[in-house]
Amino acid sequence: MSAMKALRDKNADLADLEKILNPTDVKSSVMPRWQRKALQRSDSSTSNDRFIPTRSAIDFDQAGHVMSSSENSSSSEGESDESKEARQVHADRLKAGLLDAESRVLAYKQKAPAPKAGYVNSLKVLYTAHGSQQVRKAKSTRHIPSAPSRVLDAPDLLDDYYLNLTSWGANNCVAVALGPTVYVWNAGTGAITELLTLDEGDDYVCSVSWLPGETGAGHLAVGTSAGSTELWDVAASRALRRMDGHAARVSCLAWNGHCLSSAGRDATIVHHDVRIRDHATGSCVGHQQEICGLSWSPDGTTLASGANDNCVMLWSAAQTGVRSQAPAHSLTDHTAAVKALAWSPHDRHVLASGGGTADRCIKLWNASTGINLNSVDTGSQVCALAWNPREKELLSGHGYAENQLSLWKYPAMARVKDLKGHTGRVLALCTSPDGSTVLSAGADETLRFWDCFGTAPAKKGKSRAAALSKGVVCIR
Amino acid sequence: MADGATSTISLRGSVDLVQEFFEYAINSILYQRGIYPPEEFRRVAKYGLSMMVASDDGLQTYLKKILAQLKTWLEEGDVQRLVVVVVTGVETNETLERWTFAVNACDTENAAPSTAGDIKAITKQIQAIIRQITASVTFLPLLDEACAFDLLVYTRKTAAVPGAWEDSDPKYIADSQEVKLRSFTTSVHSVEAAVAYKDHDA
User: Fold this and answer.
1) In what order do the strands lie in the sheet with A350-355?
2) How far apart are CA A264 and CA A258, in angstroms?
3) A115 to chain B: nearest residue by CA?
4) Cα dihedral B71/B77/B78/B79 (nearest 10)
5) Whole-angstrom distance, CA of residue A175 vs CA of residue A207
6) Which ipTM did the prediction report?
7) Quick one: closest CA in A to B78, which residue?
8) Helix or strand run (H / E) with residue A252
């Protein structure tokens, strides 16, 4: 009860207070009519059945005062003049620049030497490797040797961006085309065999590619400058068949099971079924200029082709049996020829492509939608790309100025390490069948082997299996 | 009063510290803001950081001359602030950036005797300023034209001015934004750093 009473008292007090504060009762006789109306309206707004915008936010008293005091505006102008003067003085003081008037600003008469003529400051300090350690780098969790584990001489290796002259097969043999000759180097034993030499005039070998997989091991496809594609049995050192279909040199080859796709200067891709008599089963026509990159996706559903017309085209495997003129996707983001193409072994449909001198970018694509996932400017021509089969890493081979191999962390595309050693641009990259070693073929006529993909866990597994079997043997 | 002469920072010691700081701060600004090509700098370990110092002879001698004079003024207690001004080419001479280092002489009489630990603390404070200068590249607008720099020294009216020096205008920036950087204090001097730059949005 007492609480209620206290509340009522308080309410009464509030009402009194309101009465005192409410200006309508006091000033109503001198207020202009419109103001009174406005006030009434604002007062009655609470009990109104119509919607009225919140006039309480508008300060009518202030507005009224401003209007009523407009007649003695002359004096206020005088004031503003005064304030102007004051402001001027203040500005002058500021201009004098001295918080305390007792200082002098001195400068040395002789000025600093100008920077070198022609030097353009683009704040490269921040963004280049030169002279600073501020390049974005990813940490590597394993040791990556910065020197090649082995260097082989490759005299007469053609320095031609458009050719694909090395291949490392499942039988652990490396096929290298040097001029008109193809050599096979056994990585296990180190034995070298000369497979073939083109003897017609100045013909040369433009591309080599091993049939992938253990079953077909020992079969090599060879593309020549005469436009023919040959299939060789390396173990027996004999040509199995010769397949035509191109009007100019065959600069790239790609296998998809028993289907060999070849492409070259005539800008067409021809699919050969190597098992049947009429080998040419279909073709893809779409590029305008020489095709220099060709790669089937690991699942065998999509063929990626890159050409001198700066286009990357993706072709569906369903159309290998017909003459196709419409690629599934045409990716036109590169601004130079695209030779380097590599499918991710980790993510389905992820394709990496690298552009030439004018482009210098590595771009990552979703091949099923044709969407560009990422793009990095490497600062140098991208001649070759290879994925690390174990880690999510991408290795790229570059040209001028460093001729380096760069290892990138995927998908962040942060540079893990640069591998330097080549004195000419890196023309091709091949991964060993066990996935631990990468072969780079340089324009300096050397082949370098880098153990940059880490040791094979397969070995560990094998040794464990061996240990297990030993254990089993012991038990028995 | 100066019983621990070896451990207290005297006026002379403080002047040396401040002058050295100015040298590295100026060099850092020149390098970080790309006023001179990065090839003309060499790496030096200082304040527990790796600092870039001009290796170009002309620039080095220029800075040395200025710093020597600055030292004399510091000893006299004449310096009020040092300003590094980044201006566009000689013709237009528009100020783009203004790095201010305000020097305040503390009351030497009341200064508590400092110990060797203070040197460590001061080094830490200086480190923080240098780090801020390095980090400032991220918010300062790009200098995408050839730039030059100038050094202005605010002194007391009574300071003795050698003939090689002249009065200059303060080279203020028209619409500027100012960012205060950290400060450091020896027992004798306190130095407050700030950078003002042309605000392109204004």
Assistant:
1) A338-343, A350-355, A361-366, A371-377
2) 20
3) B36
4) 60
5) 10
6) 0.78
7) A103
8) strand A250-256
Q: What are the domain boundaries of chain A?
A: 150-455+464-474
The C-alpha atoms of residue B65 and residue A113 are separated, in whole angstroms, by 13
**Partner-chain contact B164 A108, CB within 8 Å:** yes
Are A410 and A344 within 8 A, CB to CB? yes
Closest CA to A369 of A317, A311, A315, A329: A329
Q: What is the pLDDT of residues B103-153, one digit of tens each?
A: 987 765 555 555 556 888 888 889 889 888 888 877 888 777 778 888 999
Task: Look at residue B20 and give its three-state secondary structure.
Answer: helix
Compute the Cα dihedral for A111, A116, A122, A127 and give only its sign: negative
Chain A, residues 99-128, CB within 8 A of chain B, namely: 100, 102-116, 119-126
Alpha helices (H) in A188-255, listed in sequence order = none
Q: Is B59 in Cβ contact with A105 (below 8 Å)?
A: no
pLDDT(A31) > 60: yes
B36 near A CB under 8 A: yes
**For residues A49 and A43, what is the distance between their CA atoms, to the nearest angstrom?**
13
- CA A351-A355-A359 angle, 5° bins: 135
CB spacing of A109 vs B164 below 8 angstroms: yes
Count other C-beta atoms under 10 Å from residue A180's C-beta. 18
A-interface mutation test, from B26, B27, B36, B166, most A Cβ less than 10 A away: B36
CB contact under 8 A, B165 and A109: yes
Nearest CA in chain A to B135: A126
DSSP one-letter string for A115-183: PPTT-----HHHHSSTT-S-S-BPPPSS---SS-SEEEE-TT----TT-B-EEE-TTSEEEEEETTEEE
Give the one of A97, A106, A110 whose C-beta lies nearest to B161's C-beta. Answer: A106
Name the CATH superfamily housing domain B11-198. HORMA domain (3.30.900.10)
Please check the confidence at residue A264 and state whether its pLDDT lies above 90. Answer: yes
How do beta strands A259-264 and A393-398 pair?
Answer: unpaired
Q: Is the peptide bond before A411 cis (omega within 30 degrees of 0)?
A: yes
> With an 8 Å Cβ cutoff, are A107 and B166 in contact?
yes
CATH topology of domain A150-455+464-474: Methylamine Dehydrogenase; Chain H (2.130.10)
Residue A231 pairs in a beta bridge with A221, A241
Global confidence as pTM: 0.51
Residue B192 near chain A (CB below 8 Å): no
**Which residue in the set B59, B155, B168 is minimally distant from A103, CB to CB?**
B155
